């Protein structure tokens, strides 16, 4: 079995170290990294990670390495992080190279072929949905790491390699680092909130920040789960390329569409569904995005279901 840990730090220390590393990697000062989001305890962080894994992969190990029909890139890990080939141009933000950097910086030993400057192509060979999985690079100032390009040229190429030793190494890495992947997602949201608020029209900024603060403590951790899952699921909404008919579908657009006349979590779920319905209506007809809408709505319904769990804390007014 792949040895994935370099250190034996307790999880609490690992979590703190990973958050600090992400802030440092993004070039944020301590003042900039302060967030309106509450700090998670270990149980809540693990619950969030498992919830995201269930949403993206139905908690199935095989799904950790997948390439959805109709997409031009593989989706990897508990959050279906996307990975592009060299010079691939997409409107969606790539996240898997950032995850590899994050895992390496937090003490995880990557398989040799995934280590910086060691990625191979197939010529070197050894043995439904559009998932944004994205926190746009214009938030943190990051760019994809050099040399970390997907080695598969097509979906057929990917599945021809699905049982190879390197693919099994990749699945093992992704299966044994679920907690770290959840912390990566959480840290990316921390880094993104400031941009989501600051890049909104000035008249909306205070209102958006107030909505984030309410949601983050709403039936904890249900409200925070909604924020984390949606921004991972459909992005921040800040990337100009992520638009149909000039309208985005990310977290910023959902926060802007909320009504303050409803409890925060109910309002968020309603606004999210309406935003995704608008995306489908605006999408190019050849994408046939209507086929995904029911599943997207079902995913949003899990935000409301989480608020009914016995472990949920606090109200949502």
Short summary:
The protein has 317 residues and is mainly α.
How is this structure best described in words?
By secondary structure, this protein is mainly α. The chain has two domains: 11-179; 181-306, no CATH class. The protein has 13 helices and three strands. It has helices at residues 11-25, 30-33, 42-57, 96-105, 137-140, 155-160, 165-176, 178-198, 205-216, 222-234, 251-257, 264-282, 290-306; strands at 65-66, 75-76, 81-82. It has a three-stranded antiparallel sheet. Residues 1-33 and 120-147 have low confidence and may be disordered.
What descriptive keywords fit this protein?
single chain; mainly alpha; 13 helices; 317 residues; three-stranded antiparallel sheet
Rg over alpha carbons:
19 Å
State the strand order across the main sheet. 1-2-3
Beta-strand residue fraction: under 5%
Distinct helical segment count: 13
- Compressed to H and E, one letter per element, the order equals HHHEEEHHHHHHHHHH
Counting DSSP E segments of at least 2 residues, the number of strands comes to 3
What is the total number of structural domains? 2
What is the 3D shape?
globular
Overall SS class: mainly alpha
Mean pLDDT figure: 80
């Amino acid at each position: 079995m792949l040895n994935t840990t370099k250190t034996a730090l307790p999880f609490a220390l690992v979590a703190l170290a990973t958050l600090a590393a992400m802030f440092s990697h993004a070039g944020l000062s301590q003042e900039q990294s302060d967030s309106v989001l509450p700090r998670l305890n270990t149980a809540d962080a693990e619950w969030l990670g498992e919830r995201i894994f269930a949403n993206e992969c139905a908690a199935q190990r095989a799904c950790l390495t997948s390439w959805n029909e109709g997409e031009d890139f593989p989706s990897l890990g508990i959050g279906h992080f996307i990975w592009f080939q060299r010079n691939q141009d997409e409107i969606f933000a790539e996240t898997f190279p950032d995850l590899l950097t994050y895992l390496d910086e937090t003490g995880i030993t990557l398989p040799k072929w995934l280590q910086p400057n060691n990625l191979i192509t197939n010529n070197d060979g050894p043995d439904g949905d559009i998932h944004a999985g994205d926190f746009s690079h214009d938030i943190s100032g990051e760019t994809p790491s050099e040399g970390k390009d997907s080695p598969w040229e097509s979906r057929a190429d990917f599945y021809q390699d699905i049982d190879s030793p390197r693919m099994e190494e990749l699945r093992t890495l992704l299966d044994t680092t679920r907690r770290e992947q959840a912390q990566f997602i959480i840290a990316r949201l921390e880094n993104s909130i400031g941009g989501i608020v600051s890049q909104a029209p000035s008249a909306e900024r205070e209102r958006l920040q107030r909505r984030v603060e309410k949601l983050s403590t709403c039936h904890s951790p249900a409200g925070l789960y909604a924020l984390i899952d949606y921004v991972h699921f459909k992005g921040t909404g800040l990337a100009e390329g992520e638009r149909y008919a000039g309208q985005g579908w990310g977290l910023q657009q959902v926060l802007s569409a909320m009504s303050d006349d409803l409890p925060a979590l109910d309002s968020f779920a309603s606004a999210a569904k309406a935003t995704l319905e608008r995306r489908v209506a605006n999408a190019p007809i050849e994408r046939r995005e209507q086929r995904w809408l029911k599943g997207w709505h079902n995913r949003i319904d899990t935000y409301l279901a989480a608020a009914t769990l016995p472990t949920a804390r606090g109200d949502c007014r």
